[in-house]
Amino acid sequence: MSISAEIDFQVPDQKAIILAASRIKNYINQTPVFRSDTFDKRFGCELLFKCENFQKAGAFKSRGAVNAVFSLSEEELKNGVATHSSGNHAQALARAAALRNTKAYIVMPETSPKVKVNAVKHYQGEITFCKPTLKAREESLKKIINDTGAIEVHPYNNLMIIAGQATCAKEIFEGHDHIDQIVAPVGGGGLLSGTALSTNYFSSKTTVVAAEPEMANDAFKSFYSGTFTPSANPNTIADGLLTSLGSYTFPLIQKYVDRIVTVSEEAIVEAMHLIWERMKIIIEPSAAVPFASIIENKINHKSKKIALILSGGNVDLNKLPWK
Amino acid sequence: MSISAEIDFQVPDQKAIILAASRIKNYINQTPVFRSDTFDKRFGCELLFKCENFQKAGAFKSRGAVNAVFSLSEEELKNGVATHSSGNHAQALARAAALRNTKAYIVMPETSPKVKVNAVKHYQGEITFCKPTLKAREESLKKIINDTGAIEVHPYNNLMIIAGQATCAKEIFEGHDHIDQIVAPVGGGGLLSGTALSTNYFSSKTTVVAAEPEMANDAFKSFYSGTFTPSANPNTIADGLLTSLGSYTFPLIQKYVDRIVTVSEEAIVEAMHLIWERMKIIIEPSAAVPFASIIENKINHKSKKIALILSGGNVDLNKLPWK
């Protein structure tokens, strides 16, 4: 699959996102937006933290997974759904499939942390372990789909997934006016594309900023060069952001996102620690990346009203990065 | 000061608690109540978690401190306020004093963790260090009061403090009907007395349960013997609950609390870990004690609707009990 910057597909329109929001409403949390006087004073701006760490299965991924699975007919679902993922999409898809009484086949690298394997099992996902390479994951998934007839639900390069993730920003704009900037983390780009579409439809004066780890900066490079440039050896503590953009997400980001900034590993850890310590909430490293961009002064935040998406809270409590 | 089970003072009445709520309203957070489907399913009951970890200065203590300080006149406040505390009351009192533009003299043991010392400094408290004994703390405080004319604001044995802490349960009952039981942790008994009074006034059919660490079980012993029995060598991870009851809190608890149960150290750590992992919020060990009583099956929780007060979230992120 070659990945170009051109949009040669039907972009989810405003109606598709409104439909996604109503489709998933009963199966996800409308997560709260938290504020911190301490942070506002310290950084001289108004920060809104959208708490997707409180989302079902612990991350925004439940929005897309529920939207994708619930848009399929019973006939389409009869052989289940399948994906390869060692992360939050795996749990979210297993949960969404269970809600529709169908199977979820999840291909996971045999090196996956036990806490993630257990989470998928908790939602009755059927796990197939494979070698920890992209090739092994793809081959293993292909075989399962051939054998079972399950439908693939890709973690981000899927328009129903993107429309589902778009409901997060939509909720923010429903509750809050006059937001100058919205900042989302970027890995494969599902959340970011959805955020950019919702901003375009529901709050068109808001600037869309993506925050990415310097150590996994494929989106940054692709965006500013105009040519898809996958990460060579991504290596960041933000383990949800290791993936590169896809054939849907790259052109959507190229068109609808205003800026991409990168942040250091140190700033990610500092941002995560500050949020834990001051806001008393648990977020995973990937979720700290937007706040890291404020700490490192990468976006023009002074006197602005800025929404930051805290994308998830699934972290191994026995392996904290400041120990 | 001898401590008897008799009430020989004016108990804060319903009006006093309503007045406290309106007095502190603009200076504290009306904290949210969180739910967890996972826990409700697992324990077969309906649990409401009152999130005082999201309270100003990180604990319910801000309610009492603001109520006490804001009930004093400018004349009374002109020489400041004073207390000895190494915990959450110290921060809360320093913050409340700063809001009234007066000084807070805080006596802290020289062994206090740096994180707590810094928190008091953050709110401009004037710290005096002393040897880590109760005698040294009391003598040091007495000297400061003599020298400065500051007014003592005791962490729990003070009726304005108790009326302030009572506003927490009042908020719960305003948002939620038909609560079968309310569970508060007990240390010095300020939160528990206030909770019991509010339950008596605003939700009289609700049973009031106190949860206490087995390793600091003075309230349990005092309550069931009817005679004040201070802890000999309290030693619990729940460092907010090391203190013993006072001359106001013991008789109030004796009259208005229905039951006191004790929990093991293991259950406290397990409860804290579960809440972090599943609810994605940070609570301190003392705040986990009520949930530990559910885990250890110490209260009759099956099929009941139970409010648990998560009393605070001030914890040293570098010293977690499961490492």
Structural class estimated from helices and strands of chain A: alpha/beta
As a percent range, the share of strand residues of chain A is: 5-15%
Question: How many domains would you count in the coordinates of chain A?
Answer: 2
Which regions of chain A have little confidence, pLDDT < 50, spanning 5+ residues?
none
TL;DR of this structure?
The structure is a homodimer of 323-residue chains. Chain A is an alpha/beta fold. The first copy, chain A, has two domains: 14-59 and 159-310, Rossmann fold (3-Layer(aba) Sandwich); 62-152, Rossmann fold (3-Layer(aba) Sandwich), CATH 3.40.50.1100.
3D architecture notes:
The structure is a homodimer of 323-residue chains. The first copy, chain A, is globular and about 55 Å long. Chain A has helices at 14-24, 37-43, 61-70, 74-77, 88-99, 114-122, 134-148, 159-175, 190-202, 218-225, 249-256, 265-279, 289-295; strands spanning 33-34, 46-51, 81-84, 104-109, 126-130, 151-152, 181-185, 207-213, 259-263, 305-310. In chain A, strands 1-2-10-7-8-9 form a six-stranded mixed beta sheet, sandwiched between helices. In chain A, strands 5-4-3-6 form a four-stranded parallel beta sheet, sandwiched between helices. With 323 residues, chain A is an alpha/beta fold. Helices cover 42% and strands 15% of the residues of chain A. The longest helix of chain A is centred in the middle third of the chain and has 17 residues, at 159-175. Chain A has two domains: 14-59 and 159-310, Rossmann fold (3-Layer(aba) Sandwich); 62-152, Rossmann fold (3-Layer(aba) Sandwich), CATH 3.40.50. Chain A is built from 13 helices and ten strands. In chain A, strand 3 (81-84), helix 5 and strand 4 form a beta-alpha-beta unit. Chain A binds chain B through residues 32, 53-54, 58, 273, 276-277, 280-283, 313, 317-318, 320, 322-323, and chain B through 32, 53-54, 58, 273, 276-277, 280-283, 313, 317-318, 320, 322-323.
